[in-house]
Amino acid sequence: MGFPADGRVLGLILKIYNRGNIRISDLAEELNLSTRTIRNYIKNINEALPSVIAQVVSLKGAEVELCIYDHEKYDELMKRMKEQFTEQEMIITPEERIKYVAKILLYSKDPINMDELSESMFIGRTTLVNDIKKLGNALTTYNMYIKGKPNTGVWLEGSEIAKRQFIIEVLSRGYYNMIGLNNIIKEDEPGLEIVFKEVDKVFKESNIMHLDETTKLTRKYIMVLADRIKKGFDVVNSEKKYEVLSTTEEYKIAEVIFKLIGKKLDINLKEAEKYYLTLPLIARNASIKIDSNNIEISNSIKNLVARILDEISNTMGIQIKYDKELMAGLEYHINFAVNRLVFNINTENPMLYDIKRKYTFPYEMAKVAAKVIERTYSVKVTEEETAFLALHFGSYVEKINTENDDINRVALICSTGLGTAKLLFIKLRNLLGNDKIINTFSENEIDLEELETYDMIFTTIPLKIETTTPIIQLDIFFEEDELRKRIKNRFVMRKNAAWEVGSNVSIVNMATKPNLFFKTNLDDYIDILKEIIGKLFNQREVDEGYLDRVLDREATYPTTFANGVAMPHAINKGGERLMISIIIPEKEVNYENSAVRIIFMLLIPEIMDESPEVLIKTYEEILKICQNEDLLGKVINAKDYFELTNVLVKEALK
Question: Cβ neighbours of residue 250 under 8 Å, at least 6 residues apart?
Answer without folding.
Answer: 208, 278, 281, 282
